[in-house]
Amino acid sequence: AGGKARRARDKDIERQIAMGNFDVIAGQTAVVYQPDTSSWNPHRNGVQEQAREVHVGGLSYNASSGETDMTLKPNKTQRRKHQINSLAFEAAERELELMEKKGNSMKTKAQTQAKYGW
């Protein structure tokens, strides 16, 4: 019985609002003050993107100490010999580059609508 009464009350409130009588919800609404998010521009507003670096860990043999060391970037010899950690590093760099290109080419909904006149 409580559900029917609530639905009837909600429909009555909707009818009152549709007629322009906003006094029925005077004490029930909250006013939220915030900046307009559609005008946010990270470059104009001073938000700087951090330069992203790729870190792919790989083991390399250190001839002077006779031990294996963990390296995050491949050295010249590893790149020249196409060792697996250098290939993984290059793949991660390419993936990051493609993600950045995709992010730059994506348009907002408003830009697309303006282009096609929807």
TrEMBL record:
So which domain of life are we looking at? Eukaryota
Q: Provide the Gene Ontology terms for cellular component.
A: nucleus
- Return the annotated region ranges for Disordered: 60-82
Give one Pfam family.
PRCC
InterPro entries tied to this protein: PRCC
Protein name per Swiss-Prot or TrEMBL: Proline-rich protein PRCC
